[in-house]
Write a structure and sequence with these properties.
about 280 residues, 11 helices
């Protein structure tokens, strides 16, 4: 355990990026295992659905229904993985080493609340953005509420209380949060290029006339495989950064109270699991 994982001082942008990749490298296998547990099965389901769609190309109702169901399952699975990653990164930040089982048992403890928060996060800004005038407000809320899941997983907040907690943390730091998210998103996008390369090759081959049904099915399967691998490998990076930013905001707004919370949490954990 490096001492930096328990340091709750405010981080500069460069420190936050450096810490993100240091944690990612040091705990790479743990984060990959967390993602693989659920993302590989949903990837297999998506492959089966893609093959079925190619076998029924004219059945629009079947294609829409299966695509919708797989998309819904994928969204729920993604939320579960995200909750597990947020919990894991928070534990690492507190100086502890969780297991994959811990990540899902504790990270998904309030999963119904997490789904509800995600629904509100998608719905309310979406309704506001229906009109052109509402778009700036939707963008503002989208970023202001970006730590809603963190508040649910780490602090046990529910519904609008979690979103309000996020907004209070972001208040006064909106542009800084936006800049950091854009920067880390660009870095992840650059890293993810390697996983989009097969799609580029397949698209080029289709453009050159390789349009047989078998080739199209193979292309869909390869696309799902690399997309799933990319999500498992690069996906954690932005959420590692987001947890670091969440604690950075708490350090800036709550100061030493955060260190007190860390000590109290550790004491409770030790009392719950006394050493034999």
């Amino acid at each position: 355990m490096e001492q930096g994982e328990r340091a709750f001082r405010p981080l500069s942008v460069s420190d936050l990026i450096d810490e993100t990749f240091r944690v990612f490298r040091r705990h790479f296998l743990l984060f990959v295992k967390i993602g693989a547990v659920l993302m590989i099965p949903i990837g297999l389901i998506e492959i089966i659905q893609q093959i079925a769609v190619h076998q029924h190309p004219d059945d629009l109702e079947f294609n829409l229904l299966t695509s919708g169901l797989v998309g819904l399952v994928r969204a729920i699975v993604y939320l579960a993985v995200l909750a597990a990653i947020i919990y894991t990164m928070s534990e690492i930040r507190m100086g502890r080493q969780p297991t994959v089982g811990d990540a899902y048992n504790d990270g998904m403890e309030r999963f119904l609340s997490i789904i509800w928060i995600a629904f509100l996060y998608a719905l309310l800004p979406g309704l506001i953005a229906i009109t052109i005038i509402g778009v700036p407000f939707a963008i503002y809320l989208g970023l202001a509420w970006i730590f809603g899941l963190h508040a649910a997983v780490i602090e046990g907040k529910r519904g609008m209380a979690a979103l309000s907690r996020s907004r209070s943390l972001v208040k006064g730091h909106w542009w800084r949060v936006l800049g950091i998210y854009l920067l880390i998103s660009i870095i992840v996008a650059i890293i993810s290029v390697i996983f989009s390369a097969p799609n580029v090759v397949l698209s080029a081959m289709l453009a050159l006339g390789r349009d047989g049904e078998t080739f199209r099915i193979l292309g869909s399967v390869v696309s799902v495989i690399f997309s799933t691998a990319g999500t498992i490998i690069t996906g954690p990076i932005i959420y590692i950064a987001s947890v670091l930013l969440y604690y950075d905001l708490r350090a800036r707004k709550e100061g030493l109270d955060l260190e007190m919370v860390a000590n109290q949490t550790e004491t409770m954990a030790r009392s719950a699991y006394p050493q034999m």
